[in-house]
């Protein structure tokens, strides 16, 4: 039993049991699956569907609570559903709201990631987390967990970069990243075709249309961020591929872990800024 543990492992790419000394995985063709460069904590995948979606949800809730607590104001308890538990602009800036001013004047490029975990009110975060809960399982099923993480993270960055190019001064919310999931789903449905692909394309297309209609009717919505997120998600879906066309690769795992590590570092820095603001 102990010898088996020492001489075999699960392939970091396809999770097939292989010999640690095997020159190539017989299932997926990965070379030297037992190499320390390929079999380590950073390359074994990002966990299952429920785990990653729950982690994103918890991170968003934790950052929202922190944003309210570090600068609690009577206005945050307003009876208006659009403003209830609304963090102050100062607390959001401290924690990482993004836009032309944080990026170009304050040089806070880390805010491109942090902003996706900040929200302007209780209603804002509830809507976004419901959307994540509905879209996340679809993207994980068709792209896999690793590619979903990459699409989510890169779409948030891309959406906020594009909105900054169009002059949006301050912006927050998970909606750019979530719109990236919509973009990836639209690409998948259009590319796959058939009854299933067309159904996905039609249903998710309705979501996209509804988001833009809502954005033009309600003031303060970052339509450039939404559009940029969808475009980034569609491009990520195209370049990363989906399961029907390509298997999950070692490169997908590395990109996924890079996104996770980068996000963790940024959120830790954001929390440190918030605690420093609270104590001074």
> Could you estimate the helical fraction of the residues in percent?
55-70%
Q: For the record, give the distance between the C-alpha atoms at the N and C termini, rounded to a whole number.
A: 57 Å
- Using the coordinates shown, work out and report the CATH topology of the largest domain: Rhomboid-like fold
The H/E string reads: HEEHHHHHHHHHH
Count of extended strands: 2
Main traits of this protein?
Rhomboid-like fold, two-stranded antiparallel ribbon, single chain, 11 helices, hydrolase, 280 residues, disordered N terminus
What would you note in describing this structure?
The protein is mainly alpha-helical and 280 residues long. It folds into two domains: 1-40, no CATH class; 49-279, Up-down Bundle (Rhomboid-like fold). Helix content is 63%, strand content 2%. It has a two-stranded antiparallel ribbon with strand order 1-2. The longest helix is centred in the C-terminal third of the chain and has 30 residues, at 250-279. It starts with a helix and ends with a helix.
